[in-house]
Each structure stands twice: as C-alpha cells, then as structure tokens.
Amino acid sequence: MALIPDDFIQDLLNRVDIVDVIERYVPLKKAGQNYMACCPFHKEKSPSFTVSQTKQFYHCFGCGVHGSALTFVMEHQALSFPEAVRQLAESVGMSVPVSDKPMTAEQKKAPGIYDVLKIAFDFYRAQLKTAPAAIDYFKRRGVTGKTAAKFGLGYAPGGDDWQPLKAVYPDYDWNVLLAEAGLVIDKEESKRRYDRFRERVMFPIINQRGQVIGFGGRVMGQGEPKYLNSPETPVFTKGRELYGLPQARTAIRDHNRVLVAEGYMDVVMLHQHGVEYAVASLGTACTPEHVRKLLKLADEVVFGFDGDKAGIKAAWRALENSLPEVKDGKELKFLFLPAEHDPDSYVQAFGREQFELLISETALPLSQYLLKELAGQVDLTMEEGRARLVHIARPYLDELTQAPILKLMLGKRLAEMCQLSSAEFASLQVASAPPKVLEAQSSWAVEPALSDWQAPQQWQQTKPARRESFARSGGYQRGKGKGWKMEEPRPRLKPAGRHDPVLRVLQLVLFRPSILVGQETLELSWSTDGLAGVARAVLAIARQSADLQGTELLERCRELPAYPSLIQILTESRALFEKFDEEELQVEIANSLLAATQNLSLGSTLSRKEELDILSASRGLTDEESQEYLALLLRH
C-alpha cells in the first residue's frame, strides 16, 4: 500500500462538506449555525452531537468524540486511515494519488496477492455449481442459494487431482504469489507444490473494502482438520479480521449490537434467519484488536459460545482480552447456548425471535460473568475464601483502565460479596498497591523551540499485578511446586486521552524507529515549534533508515537542542513498551499519529476557549488548563 500525500488529504477535506458526509449515516437537524443529532457513537435520548459547517468539525458533548469528516468516516465505519481516505475521495470523484516514496517489499506484494485471491474466489464459486456433493452438503445444512450467494460460498475440488487451481493459473508451478497468498503448499523435499484447499466447501474471508483476503475450508464428512484456514499473509491477519463483518455492517449499525460467534456456519445461518449482526473470529480467540473494532461499531457486543468446555474456555479468553478495551457506556455480554446446541442449530430449531429472547434473558454482562466465575473458585463462607477472592479479582479490575465507573461499581460489588465496606475495600487497595518502579518528570531545556510547550506534570509505570491463569474445571492451575501457577499479563497502556499523543509518538519512535515503516507521514502537517517541532525532526531522521535501533536514532539526534530530554524519553519508553509485541506497537503508533494530528489541527480551527471546552468534555482539564479556562471566562 503506497503512501497518500498530505497535500491531497488537505485538498480532499477542503472539497468535502462535513454535513453532507455525516448525513449519509446520521440524520442532522439545523440548530442555529450548527447541526445537531443524537450521537452515533453512544446511546442518548437528547441530541448532544453537534456539527459545525463553518469549521468543518464535529463534537459530542456526551462522550467527547470529535474530529473532521475523515475522522468520522474512520470511526463510524471502523476503517483504517488509508481506507477512509479512499472512500471519502470516491464520494467526490477524486482519484487518490500516491507519493513517490519507495514502497516496502510487503507493500509491493499486496496488490498481486489480492489479484490471485480474487481468481481463486471466482474458481471456487464456479466449482460449487458443478459439485453435487458440495451442493448436497449445503442443502443438508439448510443453506439457501440466496445465502450462498451473499457469502460467496464455493467448493475446492480434490480427488486424485492435487493441483485443481492449475486450471486457472497458467504459471501455477512458479508463481510465488500463490504461496504467499496461502493458496498452495510447497513441498521442499520433492520441489513440488499442491493446493492447500482440496475437497472442502469454501468460505471466503472479505475485508472492509470488499477484497478477498483469505479462505476457510470445511470438510464435508469425516476428516481432520475439520476447518482449515488460510495462513497469515501480507493481507490477512487472523487477529484483526472478522468473518462476515462486511455483510453484517448495516445490521450492526441498525441494531447497535454485534454478536460474535465461533464458526463460519454459525454466521451464515444466523444471517439467513434474520440475525444479520453476527460475525465470527477466524480460528483464534477474540483479540483486543477485535474488541476495539467491534466497540467502534456498536454499543453492545455479545459473545456467543457453545456450552461445552471449549466454548467456556474461549469465553474466558474473550473476557480477558476485552477488559482493557471496555469503556463506560459500552456493554459486553456472554451468551452460552444449551449443551446440545450451537448458534447454527439453535436458530434453525427455534428461529430469530427465540434466539434474540435467549440473548436478552440469559446473556451475562461482563461484570456478572467475571465475578461469578471468580467466586466459583473460592469458599465465600470462609474468611480465607473471601480474602482469596479479593486477591484474585483485583488484577482483573486493574485492567479496566478505560472504564473507571464500571471499575468502581465492580469494586463495590466485590466488597459486598466479601463482607467489607467500601471504605475497607478501598483501604485494602491502597495498602497493597505495588511500589512505583518509575516516577519521572521530563526536564526539558528552556529554549525558543520548546518554550510554548508544557511537559506533563508526572507519569508513572507500575509493574502489573500477577494474574493467575484461569481453568474452568479444576480452579486455578497449580504448578509443579506448592505455589500457584501464575501468568504475568502484558502491561497495558493507559487510555490515549490521558497522554500527550505527540509525546507518545516520540516515545514509540525512540523505542522502535522501524515502527514508522508503512505509516502515513501525518507529522508533515504538524507545527515546527515546541514539542511538535521536536517530534517532526526526530521522525524525519527515523524515516531515513528503516533499520535503526533506538540508540542509533538518538545518536543521530545529538545536534538537536532537545537532545538531553530525548535521552530521558528513550529510557522511559523502554519501561513502557519492552513487553509489547509488534502488532500492539503498530496499533499504538497509528492511533497516536492520528490523535496527535487531530489535536494539533484543533487549535487552527477553534479558539482556545472552544478547544478547552472540547478537552473538558473529552478527557477533563489539567490544573494549568483549568486556570487558563477560568482566566478566559473572566476576560469575557
């Protein structure tokens, strides 16, 4: 994927009218100079979502979301930055250019992989029409022709032919993209290749732009593995994609609910019977990335699992991965089907109304499910058991970094269960708080380039409490010795709104300069003064070489006036990010770049008082900002 020039993005925003863009999704009503509506990002009865046509800016005074037409499309449609730019450009007849910056090897591969996957998609669909066994399988499962067409179902032939795809790829034997797309397997010892999918009904996996990025194949009778998915490729990552999301998007928005099932057929049959807001994870547990994406689309996320041991284990994994992503005002629920059913069989047996009634009557909210499962591991009639519950529950509550209200209510409920007052429970939390391992304050040199930037007062990173691994049957797992077997979770970042996103970008880039590969050069629109100017200079140096280490980048920044402060930031960044994997870092840098760009552009379109109004609604004001706001009020 090539880079989109910044001047094109500015030209695009100049050509579109934010009112026209938002009205495609939300009905707006004129209110003075602005437009009003009920916020599409959270439930509300009275409108608090305002759109300024003169400033080309939207803001919700209820939940604090704000941004431009481009930001709205990204958030409302859960699209990446490049995808949102292309969609917005197409709406006004603009063609998205690309910069002349060389693409990475991975970026060069992507378009070719999309092409070969589309050819395979057409081949598998065509094969289904002439495969009686596959047609009979789908009929026995209750799939109609209309549903098969909606999901692009197909069939991969097999038998004695190990290379059916050779019929549509003349260069089958040497086309490297076939292997990179996961369509064939190369046998090293024999130097031969064969189709990955053979004698299976096929479920194409489609991304938000309608492109085929992978496949899932299911055997029609006996055989292992029952389901076979495409491997990870440059265009397909299981931890990010959800099966059926493009087909479910409209229903998710209409119902403000999304149901996450476990299998392809669950999604297909739920849609066929009217539960069209269903999606499925792709052979993996629901990841934090999945949860973030789903919470952007709906206020209610329901995880639907089979009632067997595998389903219960998957539900607990989903809960653990959801805790850091939960926000106040959002609902996560856990639905367990009767032991003899999965969503596919249940909806066929009882229909949509009964299935949705099952959700409303039996799905457990995250808070109830969490406390119910943890309480089941102790004896609440004994003081030791109640003490044990407090001990094992606290790490889970600590992960609710973006839901302070829910965390408070869970703490009160936990205190009641353990026969403690709220004050006693709070005192226990303070008494057992882990010691600070990092407490630092940036000591920036006072110089013209930085004089207009105020460093954060203080931030700290504490070592997370060790969280014990959960086993549904048999309680908490014991190790080889007498102690409990523990697993230490990866530390979670604090909510982005509590950090200066420009500083966060600096921390990330100094920690891992190569993280910028593939990221848009959004910093070119930033100011050249203050912290933003320092960040621009550092990012410019980092982008010159993709293989720099943090210390090497720091050495190349030696001539910058802020060099002493950059040393401290690099030290702090190691403590913050050393346990994060590459995927988490990529998500954080993309979000931070965008947030920094939005924050820096805010001051050019709003007065300082208006900016502080929005900051107050979205994240609250610091002491310095509060004093500044009071001074502005008195001045007027």
TrEMBL record:
Cofactor stoichiometry and binding remark: Binds 1 zinc ion per monomer.
Segments of this protein annotated with the region Disordered: 461-496
InterPro entries reported for this sequence: DNA_helicase_N/primase_C, DNA_primase_core_N_sf, DNA_primase_DnaB-bd, DNA_primase_DnaG, DNA_primase_Znf_CHC2, DnaG_bac, DNAG_N, DnaG_primase
Catalytic activity: ssDNA + n NTP = ssDNA/pppN(pN)n-1 hybrid + (n-1) diphosphate
Domain Toprim: 256-338
Enzyme Commission no: 2.7.7.101
Cofactor: Zn(2+)
Biased composition (Basic and acidic residues): 484-496
Annotated keywords: DNA replication, DNA-binding, DNA-directed RNA polymerase, Magnesium, Metal-binding, Nucleotidyltransferase, Primosome, Transcription, Transferase, Zinc, Zinc-finger
UniProt cross-references to PROSITE patterns, sorted A to Z: TOPRIM
Zn finger intervals (CHC2-type): 39-63
Family: Belongs to the DnaG primase family.
Entry-linked PANTHER family: DNA PRIMASE (PTHR30313)
Domain notes: Contains an N-terminal zinc-binding domain, a central core domain that contains the primase activity, and a C-terminal DnaB-binding domain.
Binding partners and assembly: Monomer. Interacts with DnaB.
Purpose: RNA polymerase that catalyzes the synthesis of short RNA molecules used as primers for DNA polymerase during DNA replication.
The protein, known as: DNA primase
Organism: Deefgea chitinilytica
